[in-house]
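> Could you send the 30604_t:CDS:1 prediction when you get a chance?

Sure thing. Input:
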Amino acid sequence: MQSEILFRKYPRSIALRPIQFESDGNPYEKSNPLLLLFDQVEQSYNDSSLQCNVRLLRESEADIGDYRPLGSRAVYGCLGLLQVEQDMFLAVVTECRLVGAIRPNESVFRIIDVEFHSLTNSTRYSVSAYPGNYDYNSFNDQLPQQSYEHPCAQLRKLLSNGHFYFSSDFDLTKSLNVRSTISSADKYTYDEHFLWNKFIIGELLNFRSKLDKLKQLEMDNCGFLVLAIQGYVGMEDTIIGSSSVSLSLISKLSCKRAGTRFNIRGLDDDGNVANFVETETILQLPKTCFSYIQIRGSVPVFWEQQGLQMMAHKIQISRGPAATQPAVERHFNELQSRYGNVHIVNLLGIKEGEYALSKEYKARIIDLNGNGLENRVLLTDFDFNSICKTGNYENMVHLFSMIGERIEDFAFFAQDMESNCPIFYQKEALNTYVRLMGDISSFDIENLHSRHSTLWAENGDSLSKIYTGTGALRSEYTRSGKVTWAGVLTDATKTVNRFYINNFQDKSKQETIDLLLGKLLNSKEIEIHDPVNELIREDMLNRLNDYSSKSTINVYVGSYNLNGRLPSGESLSPWLFAFNDHEPDPHLFVIGFQEIVELKAQQIVSADPEKLRIWEKEISKVLNSRPGQRSNYVILRSGQLVGTALVIYARSDIVSNIRNVEYVMKKTGLGGMAGNKGGVAIRLDYHDTSICFVTAHLASGQSNLEDRNKDYHTINDGLIFRNGRRLTHHQHVVFFGDFNYRIDLGNDE
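Output:
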């Protein structure tokens, strides 16, 4: 359904009015249509949150005499409301392209272009339909004299990249077998894992849910709201026997841990993994419909890649095994609740950091299966790069022989198209289903495979462009089953392009993704004005103590300048247990080291992690071998800047209470070029409290007071965590280390 967009300059208001079409495609004006209106709500001077008044009215009920068309483009629905800086914008789809019908009356569209229109500022221009130009739409009495970039320009670029899709007919966020249940009949009961505009459309969906059922149906028929996925949707029509069939591929990228290649890796504390994709193959026949689902994602442990990534990728396991396990269990519990039993195909090899990552992964699965999951999570190793090196992709047949029985166990989902009832649920794949159809010619099977290969290659290219910035490697073989020199050269070009994009462009793209998903530090959801809800919220805030609790945690913080030495056998207990036995065991031990390596000229640029590992083990041994031991401690996180290092140990019984652990560092030596001096910080959330620990080594020398002060300010201002979070954004900051300040008095004084 298309709509036209109308606006009123003052008081600021925007309206969506449906456009009706004759059978010949010409628009006509429907009498008394339904309007969706968005009005600016005046805010108090001190209130930084923005509110919008939303109304669903018949045209006869709304005074729209002073509204006029906003441009000449039709819109295909609203993506939501967004606050950028101090402005509120309405996001609308202005161009889309039909992909096809997955099943009868289930059309899918690809978003081609979007626009953002301000609801708060009549002098704020709107983002235009064409890159680099801006449509002022008569908003301004006088056009700006200098060049501006619209605050939503990068967001428009992201949403118009050709990887976002929507449907006005069904819930595209859910797979076919989930949609077949009665509880999923409402197309707006979305799966939040795959709804990319949830943050900006959530309040509008709440508004819809408060309408009576008839009004909801009328609003839905107007197509006012757009639920968007990111990924790939492709279709191919073909013939099997004498029947026309359609083959579709739908890949949905999760928005739970979303981001670009080197910015977002591995697992988070809620069990979400980077680059998680659910791919569904659907074969639509006249009387039945086949569906098969497979999933992929980043290795579910805490790992990252910091610094400039050249051809050899530096992988760092960023959290200890015991501190990782709770998140691993959350990840697989979620997968099993959504998909049933899980069989992992591990494609990691034995080179560089892949081996360490694979080893850690398998260790976590062993522990997982030992915690009551009864080996329901199985893992098959398949070193893809070694087995299929030099283009020997036919060796993939070895993988199928390794997991063939499990594939048959999983089967497939099938649905009777006449009764809409499931015939049976997923347990195998396309080949088995085609065989069960009966007498199918080898030509038909080969034709179906060829079309599936085309869709799979396009799917791989699309997902790769989203995550890495280039098409998928080896896609030539996926399409044609052949490897040529031209394909090899194309892959080499993609690799070079990935290096540039991932290292130099992805940071700004990551910020745009976080803006869309509401993950920036100061992101605030646009609230729809509702006096009753505001009274309820105010009352809840006044009664906060009735349904929340507080507790005290004990933290031991110690600093040690090692002068480049390793453990000598001297007991560390008097230092680490410098508190009374009757006091509770600390929840956290936070240890800062300086000069963990000798600060020689050749060592002030890069860190030697081996000495840190030795000291980590020594501290762990002491903490966990104390006479009368009451608590067990595990390494939560560590970080190192050449000679300065920070290690946090947590009591094993509180690890599941800790979330969002991050590490950053800041060099101050040689004007910020060298790491002989500087600071290392680790932040975390303990329940709902944010804490940051910083250990620092400041400039030495009797007379270098100003250098020390300068180092402090450089560290304090330069330690920036993800989403722009600084030290000042934490409720508690502990800053400790070897500051090198001197007290210019005699020893006795």
